[in-house]
Amino acid sequence: IGKNYLFFTEIDSTNLYAKRNELSDGTVIVAEYQTTGKGRRGRRWISNQKKGLYFTIVLKENIPVNEITVFSLIFPLSVKRAVEKLLKIDGLKIKWPNDIYINGKKCAGFLIETELEGNEVGRLIAGIGINVNQTEEELKTIDIPATSLYVETGCVVDRKSLLASILNEIENSINAFDKKSVLNEVEQSLLWKGENVIVIDENIEGLLVGLTDTGGIKILTDNGILETFVGDLTLRRV
Ligand code: BTN
Description:
Layout: E1 5-11, H1 14-20, E2 28-34, E3 53-59, E4 63-64, H2 68-72, H3 74-87, E5 93-95, E6 99-102, E7 105-117, E8 120-130, H4 136-139, H5 149-153, H6 159-175, H7 179-188, E9 196-200, E10 204-211, E11 217-221, E12 224-228, E13 232-235
Parallel strand pairs: 1-2
Antiparallel strand pairs: 2-3, 3-8, 4-8, 5-6, 6-7, 7-8, 9-10, 9-13, 10-11, 11-12
Bound molecules: biotin.
The site of biotin has 21 residues, from helix 1, strand 3, strand 7 and strand 8.
Family: Belongs to the biotin--protein ligase family.
Function: Acts both as a biotin--[acetyl-CoA-carboxylase] ligase and a repressor.
Binding site for biotin: 13-15, 34, 106
């Protein structure tokens, strides 16, 4: 990963760049800032402060379509591992399907897009955005509770070193990809496990039990255990 490395001071979105261009397997596109950063579910991702880490990895692995959800968990897992090792902190939580939270606030988001070829993934475009050195003041422009590595540790983080560690972790995770161990590791740091949650748009409410063996989630509702592979979680405040 990263043998083909493209750096832009300014770009619309590293994911859009990846989608527009023919790029080799493992290409990494990094931007100092993005003018129209994209989030999941059509949201935007504010990334104009030159203090975060914004990058996209293009993969042409042959991933069977039914393994995409589990495979995609590699990305938050690798970011969590890299951050915890580099900054010697712990307690990073993975919010299903793929966000990273620290102390109840969002610190990183992942936009995983796939282009299918039959029953396999032709290209997987993994966009990763991390709040790194933003101050509390600078995070106020984000419309959900957000935090940065700087706010959490009080240390300014070298974004290049962080990127290098993350790419290493991702490469290792891909080479050693094992569904069960990915699911186990994510399950151990699953945000809101055992709490009452709502799956937005899916009309499911109940206790978050854990992950299914394909990377979806199990929710204990009044009508028994339901499984879903789509949607976004929020905490149910009672
Ligand atoms: C989300 O939490 O909704 C996903 C955010 C993903 C943001 C990253 S930043 C790099 C890449 N380029 C984009 O336009 N989006 C992703």
